[in-house]
Write a structure and sequence with these properties.
By secondary structure, the protein is α/β, with parallel strands linked by helices. It contains 6 helices and 9 strands. The radius of gyration is 16 Å and the shape is globular.
Length: 225
């Protein structure tokens, strides 16, 4: 039986829901870790519904937390393999949640943190219909160790606008990952903006939170094909 994801939800401040914003938490956390960001953004996105699903697996290194996929930090390909393995479960959840809210696939935004950013980018670029935006905090673009850009480009089905935000003092996923992700996305034809948070480690500061919300609001207001 396939894993069914669930997690905390917020209804729109001004119903009915016009868009769905899905938070994807980091390794060892759970859906409760990010849902309060939705409350912070309700003024900017009053017609957004928010949901923050718990990742499908218990976390091996944080027994009370969850993981999208295991990390041993010993295998160069484990992020790529993990994203591919977890993607169908997340895809199923996204489709079901959009249907539950009676929203079109284009009404979706993905917001990830750390491992959740890896999942947001991996799944978001492969959706048949592009999300209207992706925001990634403190993460990276997962690629196979022997990445062939031409082969990877063939997998990309959508090119939603992306905002990447990363602390310059991050000692878990170094800030260089921001630049690698931005250049990799640009090479794939994905429009990308980025912001480096000064003095911030592996986390989200108030400026980063504000910029992410403003990016979603701006992309929501922009004309779409």
């Amino acid at each position: 039986m396939p894993v069914e994801l669930d997690g905390p939800r917020l209804d729109p401040r001004s119903p009915p829901a016009r868009v769905l914003v899905v938070f994807l938490h980091g390794y060892g956390a759970d859906g409760k870790d990010l849902i309060d960001n939705g409350r912070a953004w309700q003024g900017l996105l009053p017609q957004a519904a928010f949901v923050s699903p718990h990742a499908p697996e218990p976390c091996g290194q944080a027994p009370t937390g969850r993981q999208w996929f295991p990390l041993s930090f010993r295998e160069s390909n484990e992020r790529w393999v993990g994203c591919n393995k977890a993607a169908p479960v997340l895809e199923h959840f996204l489709d079901a949640e959009l249907k539950r809210r009676n929203l079109a696939p284009s009404a979706l935004a993905l917001v990830g943190f750390s491992q959740g950013t890896m999942m947001a980018l991996h799944v978001g670029l492969r959706r048949a219909v592009a999300p209207f935006a992706i925001v990634g905090y403190s993460g990276l673009l997962a690629l196979p160790s022997n990445a062939d850009p031409q082969k990877l480009a063939g997998e990309i089905k959508s090119r939603p606008p992306v905002m990447l935000i990363h602390g310059d003092q991050d000692d878990l996923i170094p800030v260089q990952a921001l630049f690698h992700a931005a250049s990799g996305l640009a090479a794939l034809g994905v429009p990308v903006e980025w912001h480096m948070s000064q003095g911030i480690g592996h986390g989200i500061d108030q400026d980063g939170l504000r910029l992410g919300g403003e990016f979603l609001a701006r992309r929501l207001a922009a004309p779409r094909p």
